[in-house]
Amino acid sequence: IMNLAKLKTLYGSKAELVVLYDFYFGYKKGKPASQQKTQEGKLIANAIENYGIKFKSVPILHYKSEIIQWSRSFTKFWVFDQVQYDRIVYFDTDCTILQNMDELFFIPPAAVALPIVYHKFEDLNDDYKEIQEYLDLFKGDVATVEERYSFIDDFKNGNLIGHELFYYNDKDNNDEFYRALYDGLPSMKTAMESLDKINLEFELGDFLMVIQPSNKIFKDLLKLCGKKKSNEYDMDILNKYLNLNKISSNKNNKYINEKKNTVEPLVLILPHNQYGMLSGEFRIADPLKHEVFLAD
Question: Which of 114, 59, 110, 122 is nearest to 92 (CA)?
Fold first, then answer.
């Protein structure tokens, strides 16, 4: 609630602000805070009265898990079922929002966009030489940071899409526009193959997601939850569903948008530097020890 209040009052968000909450909080719908019997009910009523936040109660999704406090974390998957919205920017309750994020509603279409869990690569330095030797075999296949900035400038200034010099001029045809844009983006395949050599893989973080709600995806996630191991949690389930390795190897990053009946990417990667910084970065005293967070 504090994050949503800040988005509205401090950061000027134009989005509709919604909280999915546990029915057992005891909120009496339509009654002011003074007539609520529980602390949670009073908090909800105040948020509605003062900030215009909407609240929707959902059943808790509980699955047997080794860590009890995470056994209800699957409840967040209800956000995929909110098909009354075209797009949702979701964040966990333990996130801290520091700026307006309305720009995320306007990123290219995809079923879900989310950042990489970057802290998994903190111990990568010991294996860097081996990975670098592997990447040297693919020089020219993976665009450098400078090359990507150049691509972006060319795109903005002359509608140049990607490193295959694909020109696109029909700005009114959004489907063709985004297809051309996606084709120009660098592939993650080489990076994923290099990490595989040292038994590491990219993991997507579901603490922040930009979602195009889909009842089918919601049902598919629940099916995976029903088959999960006791040491698997919400992030594990979502990564299993999205399956970056399969997408990369089969070039099959697509899903059917049920509302538009169009084929769109299943997943896009958000930059973790802006949308996924962990609070642990503030505990690192050495300014030279933030290389994983600062990495491209």
Answer: 114
Q: How far apart are CA 185 and CA 143, in angstroms?
A: 9
Give dist(CA 220, CA 32) in Å, integer.
Answer: 39
Intra-chain end-to-end CA distance of the chain, in Å: 32
Token output for 26: 């005891």
Q: Which of helix, strand or coil describes residue 224?
A: helix
pTM: 0.81
Q: Is the pLDDT of residue 167 over 80?
A: no
Q: What is the pLDDT of residue 25?
A: 80
Q: Which of 161, 115, 58, 49 is nearest to 276 (CA)?
A: 115
φ, ψ for residue 269 (rounded to 5)? -100, 125
Q: Work out whether strand 208-211 and strand 88-91 pair parallel, antiparallel, or are unpaired.
A: antiparallel
Residue range 123-150, pLDDT digits in tens? 665 555 555 555 555 455 555 667 666 7
Cα separation, 65 vs 71, in Å, equals 5
Query: For residues 83-100, b (16+ Cβ closer than 10 Å) or e, as one string?
Result: eeeebbbbbeeeeebeee
Which residue intervals of 143-264 are DSSP H helices?
Answer: 145-158, 174-184, 189-196, 215-226, 234-242, 244-250
DSSP structure class, residue 235: H
Residue with the larger pLDDT of the pair 14 and 167: 14
Residue type (1 letter), 151: F
Instruction: Report the alpha-carbon distance of residue 211 to residue 114 in Å, rounded.
Output: 9
Q: What is the pLDDT of residue 169?
A: 47
